Amino acid sequence: MVELEGAMVVDAVPALSKRLAAISGPGEKVELDLSAVTDIDSSGVALLSLFLRRMEASGRDVALVRVPERVKRTLELFPFVDARVQEAEDRGSIFDRVGRWAEGIVNLVLHFLVVVADTTWFVATGVFKKRGVRWHVVIYEMAQMGSKALAVVALIAFLVGATMALQSAAQLRQFGADIFVVDLIGISMTRELGPLMAAIVVAGRSGSAVAAEIGTMMISEEIDALKTMGLHPTRFLVVPKILAITVTQPLLTAFADAAGVFGGFLVATFYLDVGAQPFIVRLQESLYLKDVLTGLIKSVMFAWLIVSVGAICGFRTKGGADAVGRSTTTSVVAGIFAVIVADALASLVFYFGD
Amino acid sequence: MVQREYNIVVDKLVARYGERTVLNGVDMKVRPREVRVILGGSGCGKSTLLKHIIGLATPADGTVELLGVNLVEADEPEKDAVLSRIGMLFQGGALLNALTIHENVALPLVEKTNLPREVIDEMVAMKLALVGLSHAHDLTPPELSGGMKKRAALARAMAMDPAVLFADEPSAGLDPITGAALDELLISLKNQFNMSLVVVTHELASVETIADQITMLDKGHVIAEGTLDEVKATPHPMVQSFFGRQGEGEAERRSVLQAFEDDGGAR
What we know:
Structural class of chain B: alpha/beta
Distance between the termini of chain B: 69 Å
Shape of chain A: elongated
Number of helices of chain A: 12
Oligomer: heterodimer
Largest interface: A-B, 19 and 27 residues
Structural class of chain A: mainly alpha
Largest sheet of chain B: 6 strands, mixed
Helix content of chain A: over 70%
Distance between the termini of chain A: 68 Å
Strand order of the largest sheet of chain A: 1-2-3
Number of strands of chain A: 3
Strand content of chain B: 15-25%
Largest sheet of chain A: 3 strands, parallel
Helix content of chain B: 40-55%
Order of helices and strands of chain A: EHEHEHHHHHHHHHH
Strand order of the largest sheet of chain B: 5-6-7-3-8-9
């Protein structure tokens, strides 16, 4: 901390220059305290500017602190120097900050609930009304969210199924219990991993797409344009996506289940010597319809979460193009997080519900 | 149709973003068939005023009536009825990028009326012809130039034959000739369709050609109101500097400062 005082004008600058020259070389951050500076002119600003540049060259941070209003007005004319002025931090007491943070969370939750409620209302009323739902958009979204994700979902589920079979085989073999790999693959793929893998892929592909689309429309005023035409953005944009994903996500999950079991089947037959026939017989014995249905029901729940999280991230986009990028990132992270939390809760419900 | 004395009545409107007050007690009345220009420097609250009039924002205090209806208190059918009688030309056009120009213009008609498809298509063709975009039906917004986008957006705003047309900085981002042509188009449409026209702008050239009445804002207050001559005669320093008396001196000072900084930054 270095304190400068008096008038930083032509007469005083030579002396001050010597003082500042004494600070050199690398080191910790320098704070120049200007609170006692009464006046400043161009030579004073030039002195600061040179000092800032010299410090920057040797990789040392400088901040101008406690700058009086009068001096600050002069500095504002010179952006290079002005940029180093540190505003007095007034972040309020801890209660203020906690309060503001809590208010933000409450607003977010309320906003989310409004979007969910609007969506539910427009789906419920729209399906039975003429022109209530834009069905051609629903079809388009199904292709986007469903069939285009099929290959990658199937591949990932296949690999997960195969890997799991391989990993568990080593353990099961020690007990001569190779055949139980079938139970393991069948139940875990249909109940847990199929729905989860499909949801994670879709959160990455479609959740982010929803956030990006709505976010872009927010900053280009397209959402405002819809509102002035009397079109509710939720009905117009979110409802078709919800309807589409309600159909496609269980289908994707069913494919993921099948691909995962098939991956396990290949490993079991060719590596574990379980044999194709025993695998299929055992699968029929160990796998109940309930397991598959549980997974499919969960997949619909995940799907709704993914679209609503993407939508809320989109609707909260403010600012420029960079804000869209942030919303997109948030939508993926929050989407996957929501899916996994929901999965944990669902597991509890189904576990104790049995 | 009832003939109202005013299409828009803004009464002591206060608008806030968080703790920042953007509009502080603004009054404005717009008659049918009037061209009202809302004028002011950047950040004076022009666009905010517009958003409050068309119901995109809720006033912190005061009221706004659009075509005799307070949009904040109105129920859905009432609100729909009003919104179907206004058109809004957004600054960047705000056309939906996923749809073609034809679909964009058809959108309000398809969603809000029961007209048969052929009638809608015919109406869209008429509106696109009005703005000189008959060749652009099947193009999408990214394929259009800035001026064409604005004209396509104007066609969409005109789709429902509005009683009031709003325009947010119609000539922003356009070259002076295209901008002037758009102004002319707005005026001729206004005369043909008997609309009120509310234009937000800071372009002096537009103001002089189109304005019947001017509302000039600064720091959230109305500082001058009336015809162009009345506003020019207002002694308020902001008004005077806007209409050029001190404008040149200010511009000169800024350009000198800019040159100074550029020089400093280069070293």
